[in-house]
Amino acid sequence: MDNKKLAELLFPHIDKTPDYYEELYPERGLAEGARVTRFAPSPTGYLHIGGLFGALVDVLTAQATNGVSFLRIEDTDKKREIDDGVSAIINGFDYFGVEFTEGVTGFGTEKGAYGPYTQSQRVEIYQTVAKSLVEKGLAYPCFCTADELAELRKEQEQGDALIWGYFGKWAKCRDLSFEEIEKNIAEGKPWVLRLRSGGSDDKKIMFDDVIRGKIEMPENIIDEVLLKSDGIPTYHFAHACDDHFMRTTHVIRGEEWISSVPKHIELFRACGFKLPKFAHTPQVLKIDEETGDKRKLSKRKDPEAAVSYFVEKGFPKESVLEYLLTLLNSNFEDWRRANPTEDISKFPFNLKKMSSSGCLFDLVKLNDVSKNVISVMTAQQVYENVAAWAKVYDPEFYDIFTEDPEFSTAAVNIDRENPKPRKDIAKWNEVKDYFSYLYNSLYTPDYTMPENISNEDAAAIIEKYLGEFSLADDKDQWFARIKDMCEPLGFTPNVKEFKKNPEAFKGHVGDVSTVIRIALTSRKNTPDLYSIMNLLGEDEIKARLTKTLENLK
Question: Are residues 133 and 240 in the same domain?
């Protein structure tokens, strides 16, 4: 067959050659060892936590080698796309501060010299490469209908085919003559373009996965669809063209793509493209609460599958990134202990230190990581973060919290900015309840005393304290005053003494301070009570002690 004549018949509108694009998108000229990576989501609605996980791998790999990372939008599957699905992805990355060197930056905007970075705008490139494959005899049009393909599949299922697909004796359009093809096109029959696979079912391919090492698989023998009947490419063909012309050095993607590597290797070779390195990351899994088994995070079952969940709950972006890094590299936690305040961009990320087995996403561990992250923030950082979160997700609390910024900053600074800060807050939506007793509009008194203290003894403690406390005291004087109250009330100022001889006392100094704490905050446990009292002020302290006393009597 005259393949050049066939190429003209199929693509009369294509007047360029792949060489044109080789010149338009030259080699990047980066330093030795610099890696070019890409994250290439489909605009199907929201950024998945697995997507953030994958994007982080791409960006960190490029950063660690002084390379380039870019964001490409793969929108060739129009059935799955939603209106402006791009913005949901971009907004997710913006919140977490994940920044690509190049690529799509918003709805209809992009940066970089290797674009367009949206596949639907690159159709001419794919058709140019497709035309060259036809000219080389490596691709052909297929006119099989959906019904014919279904019948073929049924025949394979019932017969002795080792795999299912369009190949061998089932590839009915593979050897059509030029005249038959010309006639079909003249009759307006729709066609797809297929790869004329040169694979053999008795041969293997071997490739070196950066994360998993050497992998051996059977060669591809399927005549894969390259262009659909509307001229739009399949994922497999589009990504090969894009990764070549965008000069991607490392294709990093989820392990579910391992089975596609043989067809991708054949595609790169058929097109005359240099093979990139492949790195297949583990899936993000969770423990199923019903079965106790590991399973993939599900968009349907798991709210935490969407990164918007973490934004709405008020997890700081630093906490989520920090936690993901504990999943990405086994040595991250050791690095963090040695560098407690260093920015994560300084971490020497290494693809080879990624686990090849699934990563278990654990919300309990994320909470612990987040408590550590928040504990080392300054009071000003905490105030600004809480205010920004509340403005969007709890406007009522925003008004209360920001009414007196100085007061609220001092509140979040209690037990902060010291060598051993408290680790009580994991996310911004917890702050309202955590500090509610400091704001009269949020405070609900609860006068329930500890079981070991009678209401009569509690009332005696509060009555005495009303006449004793002074905000002029420093912290040592303040606590000495509480200790001095103990003996006249039947308590001991010495906890060890109480433990030795509990029958001799009603309780110890800790019980006395707990009664005062409950009277002022309605809680048995709070941050530093001395600091709380200084924030409440004398009038409010007296008012709360008096109300508690009235209630107990």
Answer: yes
The per-residue pLDDT for range 454-509, each reduced to its tens digit, is 999 999 999 999 998 999 999 999 999 999 999 999 999 999 999 999 899 999 99
Residue 361 carries which side chain, given as an amino acid letter? F
Give the number of residues written for the chain. Answer: 553
Contact present, 38 and 73 (Cβ < 8 Å): no
Total-model pTM: 0.87
Nearest to 552 by CA among 461, 488, 438, 489: 461
Token pair 């501060």 is found at 97
Contact of 212 with 201, CB cutoff 8 Å: no
Q: Are 318 and 245 in contact (CB under 8 A)?
A: no
Residue 51 in any domain: the answer is no
Q: Where are the alpha helices (H) located in 329-378, listed in sequence order?
A: 332-338, 363-375
403 and 504: one domain?
Answer: no
**Domain assignment of residue 56, yes or no:** no
pLDDT at 239: 95
Is the domain of 338 the same as that of 402?
Answer: no
Give the residue among 398, 332, 397 at the shortest CA–CA distance from 369: 332
The domain in which residue 233 lies consists of 123-281
Q: Greatest CA span in the chain, whole angstroms?
A: 112
Total domains in the fold of the chain: 4
Looking at the structure, do residues 472 and 433 belong to the same domain, yes or no? no
pLDDT score at 286: 87
Structure tokens at 283: 């899936």
Instruction: State residue 84's pLDDT score.
Output: 67
Euclidean distance between CA atoms 312 and 438, whole angstroms? 24
Per-residue pLDDT tens for 142-166? 999 999 999 999 988 888 777 889 9
383 and 326 both lie in a single domain: no
User: What is the CATH classification number for the domain harbouring 162?
Assistant: 3.40.50.620
What pLDDT shows up at residue 83? 58
What is the rounded distance in angstroms from the CA atom of residue 251 to the CA atom of residue 141? 29
In DSSP terms, 225 is beta-bridged to 194
> Based on the domain organization, do 177 and 237 belong to the same domain?
yes
Calculate the average pLDDT of the chain: 93
- Report whether 53 contacts 168 (CB < 8 A): no
ω into 395 cis (within 30 of 0)? no
What percentage of the chain reaches a pLDDT higher than 90? 82
Residues 192 and 271 in one domain: yes
